[in-house]
Amino acid sequence: MNDTKGTTKERKIKFSYWHVLLLILALSVLRPLIGSFFGAAPADLSYSEFTTAVQGNRVRDVVISADRIEGTFRDDLAFRTVRVDDPSLLPLLKEYSVNVRGRLANPLLGWILPVLVMVGFSFMIMRRTRGGGIFSFSKSKARVSEGEQSGVTFQDIGGAGEAVTDLQEITEFLKNPEHFQRLGGKMPKGVLLVGPPGTGKTLLAKATAGEAGVPFFSLSGAEFVEMFVGVGASRVRDLFQQAKKKAPAIIFIDEIDAIGGRRGSAAGFSTNDEREQTLNQLLAEMDGFQPTTGLMMIAATNRPEVLDAALLRPGRFDRRVVVGLPDLTGRQEILQIHTKAITLAPDVVLENLAKITPGFSGADVANVINEAALLASRDGKDAVAASDFDAAIERVVAGSERRTRAMNPREKHVVAAHEAGHALAAVLLPNVDPVHKVSIIPRGNALGYTWQRPVEDRYLMGQEELQDRLVVLLGGRAAEKLVFAEVSTGAADDLARATDLARRMVTEYGMSEEIGPIRLAADTQTQYLGATGHLDASVSVTTAARVDDETARIVHDALDRALEMLGHNRISLDALTQLLCDQETVSGAEIAKIVKRPAESAPVRSKNKAAAIG
Ligand code: ATP
Question: Residue 537 sits in a domain of what CATH number?
Fold first, then answer.
């Protein structure tokens, strides 16, 4: 990797401009000092001292300029003073036979120099925003790595088989363009990689360059946009200029949504003008290069839905490659790749690790491996064991343990009952992930947590599953109500998640009979980054009120079910709460021993459905 921020030659020129300017400024500031260095400095007099000297017949001659009077005493010493508007001065000088001369203002110092300085300064700002300058605002900050040296190949990417196949074609184009163009076909210009964060989009783009053996210019969308309008556009120009010189090459723009969002969506703001100019320049550059130049654009985004349609039309980013979360085999491949350099203990089975990490992105998996290795080293082990991976996964899912956060006995009891409520609800309901562990050792921001581990990768969720999930989310609040007959602030996060889920059931999944199968959520909901929770602007006030009512009803239903279910299993709830208070962490197997199913757990009905849970 090396930085490309202008050649040395350009730098020399830039610095000489600044040197000249600094020299002029320094000279004008130091002029009086320099003068005094070569001869005796004139005495500075006040105006009244000066007139007294004239009246004392001590002054021989004066030179009067626009703002000062300089002169010499009869004993040859020089003096100067400011000129004040005094009509009696000339008659006074005449009376004492002082030799008077006038001096026109020095045009060089009066106005030519300031004008020159200003022109020079604006020239520099113009250069700075267009093609150079000391701050190199307009230079693209692209990081370049020569393809051969990037060292990344498709072998380094796990679980992205289809994306790799799509990109392999691109490497073929770059390696052998004539072969594809011999029948008149045109090379694609741009590929858009879309998918959730951390799924290896950047890695894929790098590997494409690595496989094709071409230089890789990489820049993030946000790096184009600066405070000054026009800077982004010139950076785009510069990036393409640099890349063309090294073609065949790949230009990679990460987070292209930062500049490629729909135009005209927030007109009037200057940052938006800047973004639009940058986008227009990008579109113009993409139109400008011939497919034969061997340039290939790859862009990545987590928010394809916000991109301007012009970016996606043929001749621009017309190829879309979806890079999704890895499935079971994908995670296993990623585990294999990232554990190559790790010493693993014999009890580590990568397949098992892959099984317990559904929903993890490639970056999450890589992070877990690193955390596990660090934990094992901290404990002075020779190899990373399965227990280290367990602890690392827990850390990644729930944050680091914060044993220093001391709770008083009452708080500890409340947290224990709260977590026991979640855990018990999860154990009793059939449609939710099994409980792996429950703990009242604070982690991250949470005072306690219930860790449910999915048993398989899931792509669809049924309505009943979502309703059961809501009951588990509200199990903590229900347990507090049952045990203490009052509620605490501890359920705030649960309530937020439950409300969000219930709202999505109403506005996105059509799971409310009252509202029906209508989509009411705004389009700003992002496919890969989760919901924003906003309703579409076209939704009427009446419908919005009905959505609120339905959301509240679903959440209330879930809370009622949780109260009913935990009430029926009060003995288990109290036993689990006590066990948590005693040993702070309770495993799924231990909970199973406490819960007496099915004798104790009475059927719990959802008001939305007829199914009984036993
Ligand atoms: P973002 O959208 O947040 O920019 P991204 O999709 O570009 O994320 P990368 O930056 O490529 O993700 O991934 C981060 C790190 O995660 C990589 O450097 C790599 O270590 C690891 N990683 C992610 N996906 C994979 C994968 N499929 N195979 C191997 N490693 C992966």
Answer: 1.20.58.760
